[in-house]
């Protein structure tokens, strides 16, 4: 075989290997898929932000992606035997999953709730706390599921950790690509020395995970109550809609 033939084969082999690696990384690990026993459960997609070549927010040798994955896995462990909730991870290892692929994994997996865990950063070190972000397309109201999820997540996580409550904020986000309730939860600031030490402490990560679980459960209870109330109101409205009988007077001769 001549030199050109060897080069052609090498190019084909490299292209095939790259394709296998790319699509293999995008496919969720077998353990991330909802098990058969999850039938009838609410599937919650947990997204550990960043990963792989994308470290997220950094401070010295500390990378956000490490905290995100650690907290998400602790949430998964807490809900492993839950009778109501099944967890679906968008990534379970240190790899970079495109944003669109994260949404696809959640939707294809049948998730009805999406929580993306992140760590924040700021230009000055004194800023700290836990906050949630929703995309600009969501409308703030008492009946909006995304806002209810955001509120309950931040409140429960703050209660579990004692961190400052930074509330709910809006931004242009890839989360607008899904109609399910979807929230980004910022669990602390890597640029705050005190909070950074906590974020990388397994014991504090346990508190964060417990707060996230409590927030998810609180949201699911709200959603069930809201849906029941809406159904009852619709039923009552239908019952009250009646027709008034009409009577026809006998015709009289002129």
Describe the overall structure.
The protein is of the alpha/beta class and 254 residues long. The strands form 2 sheets. It has a 6-stranded mixed beta sheet with strand order 4-1-5-8-6-7, sandwiched between helices. Strands 2-3 form a two-stranded antiparallel ribbon. 44% of the residues lie in helices and 18% in strands. The protein has helices spanning 3-26, 64-78, 99-108, 145-161, 193-199, 202-240, and strands at residues 42-48, 58-59, 62-63, 85-89, 113-120, 130-135, 165-171, 182-189. α2 (64-78) crosses α6. It is globular. The longest helix is centred in the last third of the chain and has 39 residues, at 202-240.
Helix content: 40-55%
Name the average pLDDT. 84
Number of helices: 6
The major sheet is characterized as:
6 strands, mixed
Give me the strand/helix succession: HEEEHEHEEHEEHH
Q: Uncertain regions: pLDDT < 50 for 5+ in a row?
A: 1-38, 242-254
**What's the total count of β strands?**
8
Distance N to C terminus: 114 Å
In which order are the strands of the major sheet placed?
4-1-5-8-6-7
Quickly give the structural class: alpha/beta
Shape: globular
Radius of gyration: 25 Å
Strand content: 15-25%
């Amino acid at each position: 075989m001549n030199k050109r033939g060897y080069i052609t084969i090498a190019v084909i082999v490299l292209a095939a290997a790259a394709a296998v690696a790319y699509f293999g990384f995008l496919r969720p690990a077998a353990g991330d898929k909802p098990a058969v026993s999850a039938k009838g459960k609410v599937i919650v997609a947990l997204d550990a932000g960043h990963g792989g070549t994308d470290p997220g927010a950094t401070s010295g040798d500390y990378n956000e992606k490490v905290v995100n994955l650690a907290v998400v896995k602790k949430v998964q462990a807490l809900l492993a035997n839950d009778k109501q909730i099944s967890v679906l991870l968008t990534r379970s290892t240190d790899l970079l999953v495109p944003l669109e692929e994260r949404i696809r994994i959640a939707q294809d997996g049948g998730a009805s709730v999406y929580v993306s865990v992140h760590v924040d950063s700021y230009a000055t070190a004194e800023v700290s706390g836990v906050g949630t972000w929703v995309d600009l397309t969501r409308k703030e109201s008492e009946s909006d599921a995304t806002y209810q999820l955001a509120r309950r997540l931040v409140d429960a996580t703050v209660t579990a950790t004692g961190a400052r409550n930074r509330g709910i904020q809006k931004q242009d986000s890839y989360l607008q690509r899904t109609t399910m309730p979807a929230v980004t939860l910022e669990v602390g600031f890597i640029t705050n020395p005190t909070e950074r030490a906590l974020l990388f402490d397994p014991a504090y990560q346990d508190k964060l995970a417990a707060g996230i679980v409590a927030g998810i459960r609180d949201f699911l209870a709200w959603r069930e109550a809201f849906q029941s109330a809406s159904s009852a109101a619709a039923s009552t409205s239908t019952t009250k809609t009646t027709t008034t009988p009409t009577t026809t007077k006998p015709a009289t001769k002129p």
